[in-house]
Amino acid sequence: MQIERVTARAFGPFRGRSLDFAPGLTVVSGPNESGKSSWHAATRVALCGMRRGRGAGTSDDREFAARHRPWDDPERWEVEARVSLNDGRTVDISQDLAGKVACRAVEVGLGRDVSDEILDGTPDASRWLGLDRDAFAATICVNQAQIHSVGESAGMLQEHMQRAAATRGTDATAAEAIERLTAFRREAIGVDRENARGPLRAAKNRLASSKDELDQARRQHAEYIELGARLEVAERTATEAQTRLMVVEAALAETVATRARIRADRARDLAARHPSAPATSAARDVAADIVAAALAGWAHRPNATPLEGSTVEELERELERVPPLPDGDIQQHSSVVEARREAERAADALAFLAAQSDEAGRGDGAPEPRQRAARWRLVGLVAAGAIGVVGIVMLSLGVTLAGAGAMVVALALAAWMLVGAQRGALSHPTERGRQAHADLQRRRAGLESRLVAANAVLHEELEARGTSTAPDPLAAAMRYESECRTRSEQAAAAGRAEPLRKAIAARRAAEQGVAEAAAALAASAAALTDAARATGVATDSRTPDDLVEELEQWRRRRADQARLADEAMAEWQELQSLLAGATVRELEEQASDLTARAARLVAEIGARPPALPSGDLESLRDELRGTHEVARRQADELSGGLEVLSRQLPDVAEAEEALAATQAELHRVQALATTLDHALVLLRSAEERVHRDLAPVLAESIGRWLPRVCAGRYVDVTVDPADLAVKVKEAHTGQWREARLLSQGTREQIYLLLRVAMAQHLVTNGETAPLLLDEVTAQSDAERTVQLLEVVHLVSEERQVILFSHDPLVASWAETLSAPADALVRLSSLGATLAEETSMAHVAG
Amino acid sequence: MKLLHFADLHLDAPFAWAPPETARLRRRNRRDVLVRILQLADAEQVDAIMCGGDLFEHDRFTPDTVEFLRDSFARTDRPIYLAPGNHDWYSDRSPYARVDWPSNVHVFTEARLVPVTLVDGLTLWGAAHRAPANTDGFFGAFRPDRAGVHLALAHASERSVLGWQEAGKQPHAPFDDDELTAADITHAFLGHYHLARDAERYTYPGNPDPLEFGEEGERGAVVATIQPDGSVERVRHSVAVSAVHDLLVPLDGCAHSDDVRAAVAAAISGVGGCVRITLTGELPSGVEIDLRDLHRLGGHLDGLLVRAEGLKVAYDLEALAEEVTVRGQFVRDALREIADPDQRRRVVITGLRALEGRADLEVI
């Protein structure tokens, strides 16, 4: 795009004035107040127009209008521009800056209205460059302040590039935007740590609190409902307990009233019977006591039964007849018995043997031995018989062992005798007889010795017992035996003495008792007689039994009288007890009151009182009273608790609303955090990518011009993709130096080159963007001015550059321009211009 | 016989959108509505008052509300029939069971229709919800056990209406219209739907005071005259104390924040009560909107809620996306990567504002 001409129809101080621009470098030079700024503004607004909208517009728009709107005719504010595009078209753009209505872009030649291609409220030729009004101003226009800032501040070079890369220079740099977002996030979100105080954590904490409060509110609400239900149950329980208590109290009251009525009635009866206290019956007790004692004595009199049996005297006589105890054995001593037995056995054995010898002699021609054997058998049998008798006697006397032994001996002896007799009858009279006879002789000798020994022992024993053994021991033994029997009988008789003595003593005591009983009986009878006299009962010709009967009758009569007296006294005492200091009337009144109270209590129970209970009403009442007190206390406690709870009950609806508000707030903060984080991520990514893409473009663009601009001092340039920082390489050292640290003039030159590069980079639709430079050398010294102008001239080889300057040095330098693509336009002062115009107007008029 | 019917007062209901004071005011208003209803009953000399459920919120009622109800009902000697709904369901822990109601108050307590003789030949059959949900219909198997004219009072959902009633309504005690015919119910006085509906055999009075934004239209308490032949003549009376308004405020053409304020102020100047405004249209990118500032414009209102979900900001994203700048790259990446339109809008505007050096980086 090239700007061929700008025509100020009515712009600032200009009326119908035009300014033509060369395709290369056009220097518009003029002193102050020559309208350079106006031409600069007119050029820009002729191309881009002004924003069209309701209202007063932005402050920039208002300031622009204040500076460049014609003062004499504010309603007519017009400017035009003719531009030629890379596609070959030439377009005239008319801007009606006052009304913003008659604005159009018309293609020269075809006369076709092409306003729609660039319409943004009003035609905006910057759109052919892919820009907008703000971007055009930031990208295409380089002003004094920008050049100056780069020169003054080392960092501005980089910042300008960043700003251009971020927003085409119209707004913040990406880093600034990121920093702004980060700071905003820090302030509006904060960190999500437990002890943090930022909005996010605060919102979470408030949400948690709200949830807790709502939970608590709901919990307390449920508790309140539950407590109410429990209170209702407790009230019902207490009411029921009270009703039961009232029933029992009514029953008790009725019972008490009934008792009171009974008491009053009783007292009334007793008072009627006993108007005064009855007499006591103590004076008659003495006679009654006497009679009672006499009757008791007679009733308990002893029986004087006559004794039977021997008298004391008889028994004493019998005692005198009892023999004394004998001296000597009253039973055969065992040693005597043994000795006797042995002697007898020996004798028997010898007799048997003799008998056997007799048999043998008979068989062998010796009749004497058989006769002797027969005699001895006879003796033996007799001895056996005697022994048997002794045994029987001993058994009868209780000497069992000795008696049994004697019986055995007797039987054995007898048997032996009989067996020996048979043998003698059966013995053989031959050789055997001779041997038998020898044998018998031998045996007899033995037996004879034995007999002698046994007799000796027997003799000793008998002598020891005081019995003589003459003529022979066996006979003495038999005599001993008889004596023992006699002594035994005597001893038995003597044993009756002691029983007789005891019988005598008993008899004597019995006889004394009989005597005493008789005395007592007499005394009882006398007592009866005395009692009868004491009570006036006749005693003449009366037997004790008669007296007893009379006295019993008297006592019954007496008892009846006493009973009546006692009854009267008891009733009197009962009366006093019933009255207890009150009068009968007072008792009746009390009973009446109690009856009325009972009726009242029954009525209080209700229309249909239940059946009144019976039994231990007082215990039941106490129990029910306790139950009612407990139930009442529970109900009161619950009621109190419910009252307290109702006063403190949090509002559930408000808690829900608070929760909703905190949830909404948290959602807002979280959504904001998400948005900010997403925006930061995308911005950082975009910055990185764009810088990465832009850095080599800028480096290449600067690099093409840098050697020429810096006269070979710097031969290479890099641009850091991270922050678009520019470094240049010194030719003679090969060292890289940051551009911001270079000289002011060099920085300005590099800045211009960067602006050119950026403008080329930002214009994306194939057009070549012109550059409008306004007083870019105003703050430069001559050297720097020339340096900048050289760069500008170089740049103009590729694109149109229009330079506005008041500096005569610039004009002088521009004088040296000779290429047809370059031009110098000298502006005269506005005063001279107006005079010329006025003059021309006068001439025209 | 003349009856006054209302329903769905929802005492102690929450208002999540409102600031605390506004919410409290809304709840106080609902009490004033009940007072108006009782005053209307006196003015119309009705024979009885009926409430078709949801008189209060069981999960939120306060002791003060219960006392208010008891005291209010005690101030009239007219019979009051209450049919508990799904929000004030009957249980032994419900205020319906625990409060010592005055003798003129009759609470239906069974989950089936039970009769109350209004006059000879006219029976009112009432039913109660005994749980917050899953209550079966009352009319399907019901048949009256006596002759005469039968009216019903219940909190129930007529199925054919559910589709166009407010969103989120669940069918509690559902029934069909023809069940009333089969049940010989001459007319059913109902509650549950907040939109008023006068059908041939039933009446939804509508909630007497709007609860939510969008609850506009005729609603209130219905005075029904029951003729001896069973025909019903209905007159609906407004008893609302408050009003709610839902307004759209287009901001097209606003060049700066003052224009926005003026547009909002103009929209709410002629209304009262609670107002919800929805900002629409497209604003130039440079216009800043401060919602707190806009809320302050509603000082004369009971409450003001401002929404801006539909508002667009006039960035030429297409043009921005063609820039070879960081801005352009950012816009391209955002348009490509963010699927959710609203999130995309917020991210793009946030980034652009940051690049513009603005401080209002929170996009509403």
Beta-strand portion of chain B reads 15-25%
- What kind of assembly state do the chains in view correspond to? heterodimer
How would you classify the helix and strand content of chain B by structural class? alpha/beta
Percent of residues in helices of chain B: 25-40%
- Quick one: which chains have the greatest interface? A-B, 60 and 53 residues
Helical fraction of chain A equals: 55-70%
Strand content of chain A: 5-15%
Individual helix count of chain A = 24
Shape of chain B: elongated
Radius of gyration based on Cα positions of chain A: 86 Å
- How far do the termini of chain B sit from each other? 56 Å
Q: Main beta sheet of chain B, described?
A: 6 strands, mixed
Task: Walk me through what this model shows.
The complex is a heterodimer of chains A (845) and B (364). By secondary structure, chain A is α/β, with parallel strands linked by helices. Chain A has helices at 36-48, 59-68, 115-118, 133-139, 144-152, 156-167, 174-188, 199-273, 285-299, 312-320, 334-363, 367-397, 400-426, 431-464, 473-494, 497-535, 544-579, 584-605, 617-648, 652-709, 744-762, 782-795, 808-815, 830-844, and strands spanning 2-11, 14-20, 25-29, 78-84, 90-96, 104-107, 112-113, 119-120, 122-123, 141-143, 714-719, 726-730, 736-738, 771-774, 801-805, 823-826. In chain A, the strands form four sheets. A six-stranded antiparallel beta sheet of chain A has the order 2-1-4-5-6-7. In chain A, a hairpin with a 5-residue loop joins β4 and β5. The two termini of chain A are 39 Å apart. Mean pLDDT of chain A is 85; it is low at 837-845. Chain B is α/β, with parallel strands linked by helices and 364 residues long. Chain B contains nine helices and 18 strands. Chain B has helices spanning 20-44, 63-74, 95-98, 177-182, 257-268, 291-295, 317-321, 326-337, 341-356; strands at residues 2-6, 48-51, 80-82, 105-107, 114-119, 122-126, 149-155, 157-158, 174-175, 187-191, 197-198, 202-204, 221-226, 232-237, 244-250, 274-284, 303-307, 311-314. In chain B, the strands form four sheets. In chain B, strands 4-3-2-1-13-14 form a six-stranded mixed beta sheet, with helices on one face. A six-stranded mixed beta sheet of chain B has the order 5-6-7-10-12-11, with no helix packed on it. In chain B, strands 15, 16, 17 and 18 form a four-stranded parallel beta sheet that branches. In chain B, α6 (291-295) links the parallel β16 (274-284) and β17 (303-307). Chains A and B meet through α6, α7, α8 and α20 of A and α1, α8 and α9 of B.
